[in-house]
Amino acid sequence: MNRMRVKFSVGATVVAVCAALAIGAAAMVPASSSTIASTIAATECSSSSPCVEVRNSGAGQAIEGTSVQSDAIFGRTKAFSAKGGAREVMAGVLGEDVSVPPAGQEDFSSGVVGRSRSGFGIMGFSRIHAGVVGLTTNPSLTDGYGTAGVEGFDQSSDGGQNDLGVEGGTTAGTGVFGFSSLGNGVRGVTFNPSSQNQQHRAAVFGIDMSTDGGGLNFGVAGFSPGTGIAGLSVAGPTAQGAPIAPAVAAVCLNGGAAIQAVTSLTTAYTLLMTLDCGGNLTVSGTIMSQAAMVDTKTVDGRDVAAYQARQTQATIEDFGEGQIVGGMGSVRLNADFASTIDRRGGYLVFITPEGDSRGLYVEHKTGTGFDVRESQGGRSSIAFSYRIVAHPMGADDGRLPAVRDVMARESAGIHRPGMAAAKALRQLGITKATSPSVGGE
């Protein structure tokens, strides 16, 4: 036998073992695993074919290893893998499934299977690349079903929900990373029957468990030149008191804002919008709506919808009461109101007498106030109320501007130079955003 050099302890066994290990032997000589393990002391060869092959045509394993204090089977390779293709990566231990399933049936055989009662089923280590790599070449467009490079299943049956199908951990890098050239980078699915068990579960769930008091971490973060995070809901309308089913849900627990929009994740941000836990919405820009309505309380505590006035121009108003004595009076504008008026457009004053008179009129309107006189030289002494309508500072739109023009102006007003992807990722705490090659990043 020129393919291997084998040392045996019992000469009479040489023929049987060599016949069992010889590749391409016409007939297989039965030999138990204990016989082979006890007779082979060392094997060495220089061949393009395996030094040792074992074929078992029965129902048992081809090779089985058992160790009381060390590794049961150990494989080592010194071959250098210059490329990352699936057939070009050398392995210390390689398992290959070459079974061919009947037509129309899916094959669940595996190249490598690891089982453990209390430890790890399979564990991989690497100094540079990934500890474990999984690849699939399944033509999902052709066969119509999807598979995975790596799959993890929790097959416990006690009803507990603390197990994990797949877990990734790191001391400084990314615990779990997924990428795709065409599909989803990471996809999560849950079949939790929430209507039966009344439990909240998420298809994708992120938790920030830092305890240093810092607020810079994220439970879930999304980055994209398009939409950072998208939420979709296929639920129908929900009644008050029913379980919520929105596309995006924001829940206040400790008094922080439910939703905030800012210009940056640094401390030099500008607050654009905030919705606090009291239901107060603050927006720094323009709010546009086709129907402006306000929720209004009645004396019996009911909520009714009241319509807001629609105006052709941007206005700011103030009101108050005054007095004429001997047919003459004056009103001084409140300083805070006067500071908001665009002096170029002036203002309008509407007077309502609160007593019998010949009529009242306004004269000498200035930036600080106006005078009120009784018509026809009257000299009555009565009270009056007034309403002032002015053009606010900074409102440059004309009458009934086109919505597209307003939106274009607002967009131009908040335009900022584009942020490079690398800088945006650094704000998210990501310093490297490359797609990993086969076997690592």
Describe this structure in words.
The protein is of the alpha+beta class and 441 residues long. Helices cover 10% and strands 15% of the residues. The chain has helices at residues 14-21, 33-39, 140-143, 194-197, 335-338, 403-413, 421-427; strands at residues 5-6, 43-44, 259-262, 271-275, 281-283, 293-297, 303-307, 316-324, 328-332, 347-353, 360-363, 369-374, 382-390. A hairpin with an 8-residue loop joins strand 3 and strand 4. It is elongated, with a radius of gyration of 40 Å. 3% of the residues are buried.
Task: Please tag this protein with its features.
3-stranded antiparallel β-sheet, single chain, alpha+beta, disordered N terminus, 441 residues, disordered C terminus
What is the subunit arrangement here? single chain
Counted by DSSP, the helix tally is 7
How would you describe the shape? elongated
**Biggest β-sheet, characterized?**
3 strands, antiparallel
Q: Alpha-carbon distance between the termini?
A: 44 Å
Mean pLDDT: 80
Give the SSE order as H and E letters.
Answer: EHHEHHEEEEEEEHEEEEHH
Low-confidence stretches: 1-29, 437-441
Structural class: alpha+beta
- Residue share in β-strands: 5-15%
Number of strands: 13
Radius of gyration equals 40 Å
Strand order, main sheet: write it out.
3-4-5
Bin the helical content.
Answer: 10-25%
Please specify the SSE layout and strand pairing.
Layout: E1 5-6, H1 14-21, H2 33-39, E2 43-44, H3 140-143, H4 194-197, E3 259-262, E4 271-275, E5 281-283, E6 293-297, E7 303-307, E8 316-324, E9 328-332, H5 335-338, E10 347-353, E11 360-363, E12 369-374, E13 382-390, H6 403-413, H7 421-427
Antiparallel strand pairs: 1-2, 3-4, 4-5, 6-7, 8-13, 9-12, 10-13, 11-12
